[in-house]
Write a structure and sequence with these properties.
Structural class: alpha+beta
Number of strands: 5
Order of helices and strands: HEEHEHEEH
Bound molecules: tetrahydrodeoxyuridine
Number of domains: 1
Number of helices: 4
CATH superfamily: Cytidine Deaminase, domain 2
């Protein structure tokens, strides 16, 4: 199954009773295994979590720490870009050139990379004095 199809599949399970905007994400770890995540909203709105965060949590729980590619899908007029927080989360486990595919359920896609999504990212080196 393609990464987009894995994202499409898990999107069906999204819990989005407030925004009614279901999102699915699927990422491949260094091992080749695929991890899926969907958005999980909460009546206390800021407690909701994004699809990307769910997929990352599944990867970490399985003992992997490197994203080699990721796909995100939603039912929107144009491919939906990850929110700012998710860009930083992707940067934690992806490289500058890690491919990101943004997709719509009706087949539009946008290819980008983790580095393009978050130029000038905050990195561990910024906490070193020299
Ligand atoms: N959302 C995601 O899960 N990922 C994105 O990349 C964009 C936004 C979710 C969060 C919230 O549940 C809903 O979409 C509306 O913002």
């Amino acid at each position: 199954m393609s990464l987009i199809d894995a994202a499409r599949e898990v999107r069906e399970n999204a819990y989005a009773p407030y925004s009614h905007f279901k999102v699915g994400a699927a990422l491949r770890g260094r091992s080749g295994r695929v991890y899926q995540g969907c958005n999980v909203e909460n009546v206390a709105y800021p407690e909701g979590t994004c699809a990307e965060a769910g997929a990352i949590a599944a990867m970490i729980a399985a003992g992997e720490t490197e994203i080699t590619e990721i796909a995100v899908i939603a039912d929107s007029p144009a491919p939906v870009p990850p929110c700012g927080g998710c860009r930083q989360k992707l940067a934690e486990f992806g490289r500058h050139d890690t491919p990101v595919t943004l997709a719509t359920v009706d087949g539009k896609t946008l290819e980008t990379t983790v580095g393009e999504l978050l130029p000038g990212r905050f990195e561990v080196g910024h906490m070193e004095r020299r």
